[in-house]
Amino acid sequence: MGALGRSAGRRAPRQLMGAGVACGAAASYVAAVVLGHAVQEATTPLDLAWPAIGVAGAWLLAVTGGLARWSALGWMLVSGGVVLQRLGHEPAPAWTTAAATVAAGLAVAETLRARGWRRIRAARSLPDLGDLALASVASAVASAVVALVVGGVLLAADATPPMIGTERGSGLVEFAGVTALRHGLCAFLSVSGLLALPELVDRVGRARRWVPIAGAAAAAIVVAALMVAAPPELAFAGVVLLVVVGLRSSPAVTAVTILFVALADMVSLLTGAFVFPPGAAPGWGPISLQVAGFAAGAGALVVAVTLQDRADALQASRRDRDRLHDHMEAALVAAAHLELDARGRVRCTEVNRALADLTSSERERLVGDDPLDWFVEADGGTLTAAIADLVAGAAGWRGPLRLTQGYGGGWVDAALVLVDRERDPATGREVVLLKLQMIDITAQREAERQLARVALHDDLTGLANRVLWTDRLGRALRAATDASREVAVLYVDLDHFKQINDAYGHDVGDQVLRHVGARLRSVVGPHATIGRLGGDEFVVLHVAPAHEERSGESALALADQIHQSLRTPMVVGTRLLMVTASVGVGVAEAGDLDGRPLMRRADAALYTAKAAGRARAALHGAHRADAPPSVEVLLDLEQAQRRDELVVHYQPIVDAFTGEPVAVEALLRWHHPRRGLLEPADFMEVLEGSELMHPVGARVLATACADGARMLGQGWTLDIHVNVSAEELARPGLARRVLALVERTGLPASLLVLEITETRLVAVTDALVHELDVMHRAGIRLAVDDFGTGYSTLTHLVELPIGLVKLDRRFVAEITASASARSVAHGVRAMAEGLRVEAVAEGVEDADQARALRDLGYQRLQGFHCGRPRPVDELLALLAEAEASREDGEVRASV
User: Fold this and answer.
1) The pTM is what?
2) Dmax over Cα atoms in the chain, in whole Å?
3) DSSP assignments along 321-349, one per residue
C-alpha cells in the first residue's frame, strides 16, 4: 500500500501538469481562432493569416495518449465551429473551417511523427525544414479535401450562401483553395515557431539569460513596424532585417522571431496601422504583405538552419578531431596521419608520441615529412604501391616494413587505411587522408631468424642441414629449365675421419669439421649453398654455364680448389692436423626436377673416387664401370621408370587335370635397352631396397587390375595374382589403396589374389592383420608364396585370412627324384586341405612333375610346362586360339 501510495503521489503532479498544459493549449487554440477571424474581418476574407493551424499541429504532436489526442481533436473541432459561428459566420463555412483546421493540424502532427519527430523540438537542419515543408503540404491537401467534403455535405443540407462567390459550386471550390493555401503557408512558419519556443524558453531559463527572447521580441516589433506601418519603399528593410536575424541567431531564435513578426503583423492590421499606396485594389495590400513576410521568414529560417548545420558539422568535426587526437596520443601503437595531394605527394600531418619514440625522432621533424623516407628504398616502393591500391578502392593494406637507420632502424608491422577524401580549399583539388599504424617487430623478426637458422642449419658448422639443402637443390633444378645452366653436386667425404675421432676424441673431430666447413665457404663463396648431411659428409651445390662437350668440367675445377684448400694443416688446440677428402661430382640431366637422382649420381662418383685411392675427385659417367653394381642398377631403374621400360607379363595357372587356365600371375619384366628382357632376379633385390619400389609396385598392381578387367570383358574369368613386396605391406593404408584401385578399374574384388612371400609372415603386426582383414571382407584373397621354406608358423596360417598356398619351386624341381621333396609336397597339400585353402604348385617344368603333383592331389599348377609369361595381348590371342581349337574339336594339353 505504501508503494502504491508513493507511486500515486508521484503520478499526481505529472497529471496536474499535463492537465495545465492541455488547458493552456485549448485556450491558445480558441485565442488563435478569434485572432485569425478578427484579421480577416479587418482586411479581407482572402487574408492568409490563420494562427490556429500552428497551435493545432503543435498540440497534436505534443500529445501521445489516445484519450488525450481524441480530447484535443474534439475540443478543436467543437470550439472552432462554435466560436466562428458565434463570431457571425454561417454554420456551413464555420464548421467547414473548423473541420479543415483540425484535419490540417492532424496532418502536420502525423507527418512529422512519421518522419521521426517524437517530441517538441526546433528545426536544426535542412532535413528538418524538409520535414516541415512536407507537413505543410500535407496540411494543405488535408484541409482542401476536408473543406470540399464537409462543406459540400453542409451546403447540401443548408441553403446558406458560401463565404466567397455567389454560386454554390464555384464558391466552395474557391473557399477550399483559399483554405488550403492559408493552412499550408501558416503551418510552415507558425508550427516551426511554436515548436522552437519551448526549447528556447527552457534554454534561456536554465541559463537565466533573457537576452535572446528580448532580442527576438524587439526584432519582431521593428520588422513588423517596417513592413506594416512604414511606407512601402521602406517595407523591404524588414526582409533584410529578418535575414540578418537568421545570419546572427540560432534556428530557434529565428523561428520565434518570425512567429513574433506574424503576431505583430496581425496586431498592426487590427489596429489599422497598415500603410498601402493609394489606388491599390482593396484587400490585396494585406495579402501581399503576408506573402512577402512569409518569403522573408522562410528565407531567414533557411539561412539560420544552414548556418546551424555548418556550425554543427564544424563542431562535430572538431570533436572528432580532438577525440581522434586524444585516442591517437593515448594509443600504444605508433600512428601517423598522412595526406596525399593531387600531384601524388605524400605528407605527414600528425604523429603520436609512440611513433616519435619508435623512430627516435622529434615530432617537429616527422610532421611535414614524406613518410616514404622513413623506410628503406625497397619498402618505400611497397608503401607507394599500397597507397595506390587504397586510392583505387582496396579495403586496406598490411605488411612488414624496414625503417632506415636514420629513423631508428628495425622492422615494423605496418597497417595503412584510407580515412577520407576532401577538397583542398586553396586549390579545389582532391586530397586523400590516410592513417598509418606501426608495431615494432624487430625482436620478433630476429627471433624468427634465429629459429629459422636453428631449424635449417647444422648446429656444429652453421652450414645448411639436410632440409635446407634439399630445398635449395630442388629450387636450383627447377630454375635451370633450359640448357644454358648446368647444375652439379659435389659430394665431399673426409678420408679416414674416424681415425681422428678415435685418436683425439670427438671434441677435436668437431673442431676439424668446423675448419672444413669454413674452408669450403672460403672456396665457393658466402652465397653458394654448402650443406653438412651428417658425420663427415659435406655437399656443395654448383651452378655454372653449361658446356655441352665438357659437362661437369667447372665442377671438377671447383673440386680441385677444395682439395687445394684442405692441403694446409689445421691448428686444433695444440695439434697440427691435416685431412684429405674424396669428392664425387654428379651433373643434373634433362628432366631432373627431383634432387634424389642427382644425389645418387654424386654418391656413385664418390664411391669411385674412394675406390681409386681417395684424396681425389671423380665425375659420374666418366668412370661408371668402377661404381658399385647396385648403384648402377638403381640409376638404370630410375631411367627405366621414366621411359616405361618396366612392363607386366602374365603366366597362366592351370587346372592340373584339364589344363584349362584358371588364373594368371602378374610378373614384372624390364625391357633393358642394352641387355634385353630382364627377369626379376636381375634387379628385384635392388628395386626392393630403394624408394622406387613404391611407385613401381603401385604401377604393377594398377596394370594387373586393368588387364584383369579387360580379360573379364572379353569373356575370360581368371583370378589375377599380384605379388606384394614387404615395403608395400609396411606402408599404412594398403587396404584403402587396393580397394580404391579395384573400384576404379572395375575388376571384381573376388578375382584379385595378393601373394605374400612366406618369409614376410614372420614380421606380421597387428596393423598388417587389420589391413588384411579389411581386404578379405571385401572379397580379396591372400596367398602365401614360396611356401615350405620353413620361416612361417602354423599360427600365422590359422590367424590370417589365407586362401591359398603355393608350394615352393625347389620342392617341385626335386619331386620326381627325391622322396623328401615328395613328402614335403604331400604334407603341404594335406595341410592346405585341412585348413580348407587351395594349394598351387609353381615351377612345373615338365610332364613328369605335373603327373607327380596330380597324383599327390594338387588341383592347380604353374610353370613353363603350363605356359610361359606373356604380354597381355599375346595371352589374350593365345586364349582365343585355344578356345577356337576346342570349338573345332581339337584337344590341347596346355595353353
Assistant:
1) 0.40
2) 158
3) HHHHHHHHHH-SSEEEEEEE-TTS-EEEE
